[in-house]
Design goal:
The protein is α/β, with parallel strands linked by helices. About 40% of the residues lie in helices and about 25% in strands.
């Protein structure tokens, strides 16, 4: 079998995940990438190797005999890459290192209010720089161009990026006490409801508009402002309700916080391009994963 020049670690990760999960759909979900991107990468590898790695079986796939051997070797290769990157972190010591982390506005509180300060205390030799992006597409662009090492982002991500899930965040409805609604709140109840919303034209507003469109609802903008600290007070004054992330609403005294039914959630993760991470970036990635495990 002749190896093609274009074979890469992304293809190997996708093939191993497909073998582990039995379907390309499940593998894509586990890796938080789009299923068509995963399928395309697997097909490209099959073309480059000139062999069939998977055969259809019912609704899923099974490895062919040569596919079993490729997956076995792929696991060895991926483990070796992890070991080499681990050595890089262990011996880099962080001296003179720089870490660039991209974030959209809605996720910056998670980054600058939690992870980065704790990491900076533990790794004072690492210079940390936050790369602020207006939205999801801008985050993807800075990772692809190499202007950021890592990004905090919504999952799933395009297939040319690697995602590491950190935490699932819940979207809730915050309203004045007098508003009578079923609990949990059906998303349809948002139709025509007066909402306090981020200002038009900003990344946070675009994000909320996309969420409401996905839910198929059209609320009424009662007040539009990016002054997040003022939102709870405006809700308390009866100007409108608020749809936002539970963990980003600190001042809930005198307010009613309701979950949606079914729950509306958002998976957050650290994302990077398919290239070797710097020692500082690898260190931060491991730090974030450990922090997530400690909180659960």
């Amino acid at each position: 079998m002749a190896y093609g020049q274009g074979m890469n670690l992304r293809q190997l990760r996708y093939v191993v995940a497909t073998a582990d999960h039995g379907t390309m759909t499940s593998a894509a979900q586990a890796l938080y990438v789009a299923q068509p991107a995963l399928s395309r990468a697997v097909r490209e590898l099959e073309r480059e190797l000139g062999v069939e790695l998977f055969a259809r079986s019912g609704r899923g796939v099974v490895l062919t005999p040569v596919g079993e051997e490729v997956v076995r070797q792929a696991r060895v290769a991926l483990e070796a890459v992890e070991a080499i990157e681990g050595l890089s972190v262990a011996h880099g010591n962080g001296r003179g290192a720089e870490l660039r982390v991209a974030t959209p506005p809605s996720l910056e509180p998670e980054l600058t209010g939690g992870l980065l300060p704790r990491f900076a205390r533990d790794r004072p030799a690492v210079r940390v720089r936050v790369v602020r992006c207006r939205g999801r597409e801008a985050v993807t662009a800075v990772l692809r161009s190499g202007r950021a090492d890592l990004a905090v982002a919504d999952l799933p991500v395009p297939g040319d990026l690697i995602a590491h899930p950190l935490e699932e965040r819940e979207v809730v409805l915050v309203s004045p006490p007098g508003l009578r609604l079923r609990e949990p709140v059906p998303p349809a109840a948002l139709d025509g409801l007066r909402l306090i919303m981020p200002a038009r034209g900003g990344a946070s507003r675009a994000e909320l508009d996309a969420l409401l469109a996905r839910l198929g609802v059209t609320p009424v903008p009662a007040l539009e402002s990016d002054e997040r600290a003022a939102w709870p007070g405006w809700v308390r004054a009866g100007l409108g309700s608020l749809v936002w992330y539970r963990n980003q609403i600190d001042d809930t005294e005198g307010l009613v916080v309701r979950s949606f039914g079914p729950p509306v959630t958002r998976m957050i993760g650290l994302v990077h391009a398919h290239r070797q991470l710097s020692p500082a970036a690898r260190d931060f990635l491991n730090f974030a994963k450990e922090s997530g495990r400690d909180q659960h």
